[in-house]
Amino acid sequence: MTTIKLAIGSIFIGFAVLGLKSLAYWMTGSVALLSDALESTVNVATAFAALIAIRVAAKPADEGHPWGHHKAEFFSAVLEGVMIILAALLILREAYDGFMTPAALDAPIEGLAVNLGATLINGLWAWVLITNGRRQKSPALVADGRHLVTDVLTSVGVAVGVVLAVVTGWWILDPILASLVAVNILWSGWKIVRESLSGLMDEAVSDATLGRIREVIAAEANGAMEAHDLRTRHAGTAIFIDFHLVVPGETTVFEAHEICDRIENALKKTLDVTHITIHVEPEHKSKEDGAIILE
Questions:
Q1: Is 29 left (phi over 0), alpha (psi -120 to 50) or beta?
Q2: What is the DSSP letter of 241?
Q3: Does the domain spanning 207-293 belong to CATH 3.30.70.1350?
Q4: Contact residues for 117 (Cβ-Cβ < 8 A; gap 6+)
Q5: Do 5 and 103 meet the contact criterion of CB atoms below 8 Å apart?
Q6: H helical segments located in 69-172
Q7: Nearest CA-CA partner of 23 in 37, 12, 9, 8
Q8: Among positive and negative, which fits the CA dihedral 54, 83, 160, 112?
């Protein structure tokens, strides 16, 4: 399934879940279920944000954006993280009112059943988004999926609170559980913001990916002496690599170009690299310290 279709699907799922959770609150009057519904309003907004970001990121490079529009997805993920934090603060506000005036719940069993249906839908869709987002290297889809995971955790916590409140008659448990879940949501929102900001700051690829890049260069650079000053960064689905390739002094321009082509093709095939820049240098530029020795 394409990222665009998944993003559109998230919008429809978001509206469906929001409707079910709002119904659960209307049936019970539970402040925890109201908080759960408030958190779900963010799902709809972030789904729209993810769709916009994915469409922008998919645009080809142009004169104004010669490196493409890949970072648009990180902006969307930051927005989602901020909105998750906002939802948590709204939940804490509602929980405070519940502490001040705890009240018995109406039709708790029926309300929980409706809320459970919404939770199952969210859980399944979160798995779809995260799985496909990682496969397609889409930060926006992964962030949207993680957001839904926090929504599932919210619903589970809320259900536990409502059940305990009904069994014990301690109605103050309703806002207590809502507050605890809000704290967890705050932490999840912060993690999404932090990871997305790392992408906006041109963070290097993971150590595992970097190791694979070095292996490919070493395997495909026959005829060169060493590669040094290897640098990487990632932006959404795009990986950028540049390094210096040292060749013997007698190497012709044609031969050096053939080596570079071989390395580029291998990197693009193995790691789906988007942009590669190789600076060819004569042998007196050799550094050796920290370099990939090829001979």
A1: left
A2: E
A3: yes
A4: 20
A5: no
A6: 72-100, 108-135, 139-168
A7: 37
A8: negative
What residue spans define the domains of the chain?
Answer: 3-200, 207-293
Specify the pLDDT at position 157.
Answer: 77
Does 58 have pLDDT greater than 70?
no
Burial 249-286 (b: 16+ CB within 10 A, else e): eebeeeebeebbebbbebbbeeeebbbbebebbeeeee
The verdict on pTM exceeding 0.90 is: no
d(CA 127, CA 189): 18
The pLDDT tens digits for 120-141 are: 998 999 999 899 888 877 776 7
pLDDT in tens, 235-247: 666 788 999 999 9
**Sheet with 292-293, edge to edge strand ranges:** 275-282, 238-247, 226-235, 292-293
Bridge-based pairing of strands 292-293 and 275-282 is unpaired
The one-letter amino acid code at 167 reads: V
For domain 3-200, give the CATH number. 1.20.1510.10
Higher pLDDT, 236 or 9: 9
Element housing 48 (H / E): helix 31-57
* Per-residue pLDDT tens digits for 151-164: 788 788 778 878 88
Tokens (6 digits) for 290: 């920290």
